[in-house]
Design goal:
about 350 residues; alpha+beta; Jelly Rolls; 7-stranded antiparallel beta sheet; 6-stranded antiparallel beta sheet
Length: about 350
Amino acid sequence: MFPTRRLAQGGFFKRSADEFGRLSRIAWNTETLHTPTKPYTLLNFEDEETVKGCKTMADRAVGGFSTASLDYEPAEPSSNTPSHARFHGSISTKLPDNWRVERTGYAAFRNQDRGYWLFGKLFWDVDPYAYLALRIKSDGRRYTVNVQTEAVVETDIHQHRLYTRHHRVREVTSSDDAYSFQADSPDSVDELYPNGLPAALSDVPPESTIMSTSTSTTTSGSSGWETVLLPFNSFVRTNHGFVIEPQTSLTRQRVKSIGIGLTDRVEGPFDLRIHKIWATNGISEAEFEEERRICGENALPLDEGVQSGWTDMPQEKPVKEIKQNKQQDRGSAKGLKGLKGEWEE
């Protein structure tokens, strides 16, 4: 494993003061009495220290050949490009000379533990919010958002596919075996998804995912930046890549890490830019100016539920019949076992 340079976390008293200040602002604004309309920033990659405070993971830890880096990229005012993190590297499915390793081809990053404050471990409390928002510039590969909470089972991770306007569905021919992509893996589709493919992990974005309504399908003439809202209630509980039953919702009051992984096992380079990750109830006035400036014609509209009566959405139902829609869903079961125990290291 080749982690990025670790950040010396801010001092204990500074973290405590920052958290007290945040809670005081919430109390002063009586946000606990109604649905918050202001964003709650979790990871702001305009700050270089946030980038340094993350760790990268790849199959090189087990002898594989994939690489992963997370670098800070400064702003380019001429193109309205903000400072951001660049998650890049290359995926290789080549196996090492180690009979114990049966699968490679993954890379990921996440923030490191946030440390302690006066009342114990420091977590993000996103309970008042409906969506996890990510402002990204994607190369179209099938990334997965990973959220880890303080849970009974420490290795549980809640996952959701990172859908984008440039999301590419793997093209297949009619002569392909529906599960041929699993031939090099010990995991079968039935093992990964015993109750059917969850909607949040399929190749087609579920209706609950909020994306740009722009009719453009390329980055030509635009900045390429876009914001995607993923409902917290749609995240799928997994453990070592397997969907776990019974499904349980995110423990939103105790989120300890957020990251993005690439486990599609498609060989070649990848390049994902991330500006910011935050919790929200929709694009509010506080977010709209920045959203329009950075994303341009791909900007989400103002008021996606913030003022129009947001209500919590139900858990996405799994896709029961995978085999009836082979071309749509094939390939989406790949790679979800990649992160394994590295997430906790």
